[in-house]
Amino acid sequence: ETEPLRGAINADQGETTISRHIYGHFAEHLGEDIYGGFWIQDDQNNWQYNQQVIDALNQLNIPNVRWPGGCFADYYHWKDGIGPRDERPDQVNTIWGAVTEDNSFGTHEFMGLVDRLDAEPIIVGNVGSGTVEEMNDWWKYLNHEGPGPMADLRAENGREEPWGVEYFGVGNESWGCGGQMRPQYYADLYRRFAEYLRPQVGTDPYRIAAGPNGDDYEWMRTLMEEAGYMIDGIDLHHYTIVGTWENKGSATDFAEDGWFEAMQGSHYMDELLTRHSTIMDQYDPEKETSLIVGEWGMWHDPMPGTNPGFLKQQNTLRDALVAALHLNIFNQHADRVRMANLAQTVNVLQALVLYDDGQLVKTPTYHIFDMYKAHQDATLLPMAFDQGVYEHNGEETPAVSASASQDEEGRIHVTLANTDPNQSRTVTTELRGQDVSSVTGRVLTAEQMNAHNTFEQPERLTPSSFDGAQLDGNTLTIELPAKSVVSLELR
Ligand code: AHR
């Protein structure tokens, strides 16, 4: 038995909105994310949207999708992906698996997808191997009302009205696969490319700069200093890896060491956000520029027997805990972090769903997004509490992670995760500033750390109703099972 962890939620002190865009997603031309995921062939080899995937995602109120990459974005020439499908050129996807890219999924198909998902598009332009003219043409193709060459071309291809795309990334990982640039050089290029993403009738650009690789604070400082005045969002990327880049370990076959490292690695996101925000505060105390976490999630060794360039992996209770910790951390940083995109939605990395030949399975991570969706656009409630300690082999990481918000109807939502796989934790928190009379909840947990869903057993790990929370006046006591995630609603 451990001591109860004490805390307080201040329901009358909420100031910051948790942007729904924190609950965003990412779909790249990589492996079976687009082709074989969102976009599938029927019996006659005609391409079509995958309605099963769309239906599953629609339950999560997905706010946005980032596309076409990732690294692929700086290889992609968007004009290959418009016009009649049978006239579009084949390319080789040299960055991911060296497979044929038939360009059947292009701008119109992506805009049709986000329309079906009722989500905002985030388009990443090509800086690494593209030109200012090419990016500027894409921007006008998306947004210029016409008449003009790009608006006319769009109309010829079946779309009269401009789409009004606001979120536009100026390159991806420009320090790496997006051009191996140094920060000063990228800052100058950013200024040049971004200059031509100008407001169109009805559309103001939200210009996103390729941000730092994890703890590259120099990249952040240079960008803020040299180009900050033109940047709406800076896109930080950081993945949670157990082991080394060369040997990340199996998604499903791991012991407590691999569990502990993932929990510790997730808490590192808090340090990254705190330190990058501190740098941004020096240049932008009004917090006009957002910090975006445009790629995050667990990256394991590829599933045995799959193309290693496809980054396909299973997803267990461990991934669910990692997602829960990250989302709590993003919520807590909502004053600066206004967008995040889990990598990647279907069949790639920490996917929400796995799909193969007519079969779909929701991963444990999918269920976390479902349990957390009530935080979208709610007001963050300040919450202070003792996180406790999860100790393993002489090392420590916080045991409990949590965040709280209040929605427009006044309901309070609390999400908590207990990272300790061996011991339950009791959290006792005072609710200040508002009276509530009922608490209901859901829990995701399992006997085994590596519990996961398969096509054969799709419901092995799903949330169940939670009866471990009690209200006594304004004191809320929660018994968090070992290795669990709990979401509560208080009225
Ligand atoms: O998500 C996979 C890859 O990881 C992306 O293409 C790239 O941006 C990052 O390095």
From TrEMBL:
Alpha-L-arabinofuranosidase C-terminal domain segment(s): 294-484
An example Gene Ontology molecular-function term: alpha-L-arabinofuranosidase activity
Top-level lineage group: Bacteria
Keywords for this protein: Carbohydrate metabolism, Glycosidase, Hydrolase, Signal
Pfam families associated with the record: Alpha-L-AF_C (PF06964), ASD1_dom (PF22848)
Annotated protein name in UniProt: non-reducing end alpha-L-arabinofuranosidase
Enzyme class: hydrolase
Documented EC number(s): 3.2.1.55
Organism of provenance: Longimonas halophila
Gene3D superfamilies, alphabetized: Glycosidases (3.20.20.80), Golgi alpha-mannosidase II (2.60.40.1180)
Record-stated family: Belongs to the glycosyl hydrolase 51 family.
Catalytic function, reaction form: Hydrolysis of terminal non-reducing alpha-L-arabinofuranoside residues in alpha-L-arabinosides
Binding partners and assembly: Homohexamer; trimer of dimers.
